[in-house]
Design goal:
Length: 94
């Protein structure tokens, strides 16, 4: 499984891209990422809302045995599992 999180927007407009190929991560970290991905409802649609000034926009892409799925979310409607995945991938890149 490969996972990519792209975060854009924010005050500075800096774009963050964090990726992980679970086959190359330590087993414990790969399991944590896999668990976070399994908690995300990729079929869910965020409620319509006006953009938040300096808010973040997230795009999650996951490639696995079943193909590719993606999800987008904007502040303030970012589900907790998405935030969890963002933090895990940021740490994996360090």
């Amino acid at each position: 499984m490969k996972v990519r999180v792209t975060r854009s927007g924010g005050f500075a407009g800096v774009r963050l891209v964090a990726e992980a190929d679970l086959a190359t991560l330590p087993a414990e970290r790969a399991a944590a990422v896999r668990e976070a991905v399994s908690e995300i409802d990729f079929a869910a649609k965020a409620p319509p809302a006006p953009p938040i000034p300096d808010g973040f926009h997230y795009r999650i892409d996951v490639w696995g045995d079943d193909g590719h799925v993606e999800l987008t979310a904007d502040d303030p409607f970012v589900p907790p599992p998405v935030r969890k995945l963002v933090l895990l991938l940021e740490r994996a890149g360090r």
